[in-house]
Structure of Protein zer-1 homolog:
Amino acid sequence: EMASDSPESLMTLCTDFCLRNLEGTLCYLLDNETLRLHPDIFLPSEICDKLVNEYVELVKTDSIFEPHESFFTLFSDPRSTRLARIHLREQIVQDQDLEAIRKQDLVELYLTNCEKLTAKSLQTLVSFSHTLISLSLFGCCNIFYEEENPGGCEDDCLVNPTRQVLVKDFTFEGFSRLRFLNLGRLIEGVNVETLLRPLASLAALDLSGIQLNDVGFLTQWKDTLVSLVLYNMDLSEEHIQVIAQLRKLRHLDISRDHLSSYYKFKLTRRVLNLFVENLVNLSSLDISGHTMLENCTIPSMDEKMGQTSIEPAKSSIAPFRGLKRPLQFLGLFETSLCRLTHIPAYKVSGDKNEEQVLNAIEAYTEHRPEITSRAINLLFDIARIERCSQLLRALQLVITALKCHKDDKNIQVTGSAALFYLTNSEYRTEQSVKLRRQVIQVVLNGMESYQEVTVQRNCCLTLCNFSIPEELEFQYRRVNELLLNILNQSRQDESIQRIAVHLCNALVCQVDNDHKEAVGKMGFVMTMLKLIQKKLADKTCDQVMEFSWSALWNITDETPDNCEMFLNYSGMKLFLECLKEFPEKQELHRNMLGLLGNVAEVKELRPQLMTSQFISVFSNLLESKADGIEVSYNACGVLSHIMFDGPEAWGICEPHREEVVKRMWAAIQSWDINSRRNINYRSFEPILRLLPQGISPVSQHWATWALYNLVSVYPDKYCPLLTKEGGIPLLKDMIKMASARQETKEMARKVIEHCSNFKEENMDTSR
């Protein structure tokens, strides 16, 4: 069904909840394995139909949802659960599932592409014969096959334990109420005429993809048949004569896929005239994919005016001038006729413009993915080159197609590419949260089912159109798992790798710590370090290298577990090697030191940083001018935390503690207090803990400098944060401390003054 933009109904929400929590709601587990309905539950068909249909939808489109072996048995007893109209699709349904519900009085049963159903299910169908009005067996390619055990099974068994034999004797005998029947893509060898003969009054028949050379038997329903679909049937003069006798027809579809095979038949003016004259009730006609043998067009005088008319009298297609009224629908996809000016129909499928293309996607998605993927490709061009005027409809149609054909590579490739253009920033304002979430869901489904490079790239690019992490929060674990999966593959496409690392980095930026811990447990730290290792081996410092370090900086922020993982997986070794290999890369240095700042904030991990080699490296980086003050600032931050542990923690002879302290003072004094910053604090806690102590005045000074710089340059963000986290009393206490340096106290007073001024200014404006 069509993706919608309106809020979910309460019914849908309840259905969804019950299906995801069957055990806690409608069912209990018998012997720890079989689902059973609670004995006091009685549900009408309105609810049961929705449960079954939504279940099928969930299994198909939600990878997290687990199918239940015994789901269909919940509906085995019509006294407690009633089913009337159900739509089952694909591998989800097997013979025993249909068998389980055989006592139900089904009115409508759609089985679409249910390839697992065999002739056992044909027998089950008979139990619905007295009530069934609508039946679709579209694409159920094995339903006319039964297994036959060959006699004298000696050696043969191993080679061919069961042979598939076509069932010849099944007919719709006894299906007295059946009016609507879809046999699309029926297996060859079944005698359609014999199969259908018992049906007294068919109203709609779909024989898509079946080749019948004689359709004379259709005239037995000439008084009742209102809809006939012969998609991809190669027609002949005989076919046309039979169709012309079905005078009650309102919908006729003789369209075809012009790529699928060679067709002898060519449409002529005479054939169209015959239809118009004989089928007087016709309101919908599909002739997509046909070649016109002769020119049917009437050059019109007013084409220059650009006025288009749907009046039959003005039709540019000559035979349609004979229509009594405009058609509701006319299928002209991949024909030359769709480009004409006056087409006498309210809705036209074609390839001329956005409206026609969207009509095509809408009309063909469910049963004709081969046509739909070409239509979506046209939409992709429209979205990329022009601007879509029916954005909402376009998005909904593409989402629906992607959900419906999760395993169709062509649709996944063209659909994911179209989504990229349909979700980019210029369309942003026209999209609701719900719709954007549906886009994310189908994109993730695509990434999950397809290791194919194009699909993966399109999906990753589309995710970049969203606000991250906010818009991806509702699928947080899943997105991260999928991206890490991509990054852990041994052979990698450069461009996908770059986009995936960028996304990973954005996902761990500004999110809660429990999210970071969860992602850390998924192997995030290890994955990034592996990427860094690969780049180092190639001696390349590109975006992937920089993003990987940036992602590690983000994921270790106030998350000790991830900091520890970084150290355990030889992160420090990589840090030193990168410094040595890329001495000029400022961004890289900033990202690496930001990360080490996070590690240094964890008291238990600091002893691991206490080596001559590391301390020398940090001391030398104090003089770095890379990226403004960032590298120097972060190096000083790391050392401030180490100094805070006191002289007794200084377990090395070289360099001397006093010497490093001196270099730290010099560095801080060299920074411009008005520097604009490349850093983002979510909390001042790690800085504030350096204030109430006398063991390392330089650490105190670094912390005060950091606060002063941030509240001066970004008062709107940082004055409230400092006040909220109790920084002001800590600064006041420090000013009273004897051990604090005079210049530190001066700076602390300025911070306090700054924050109180900020507060007063804001008070004034709010009156």
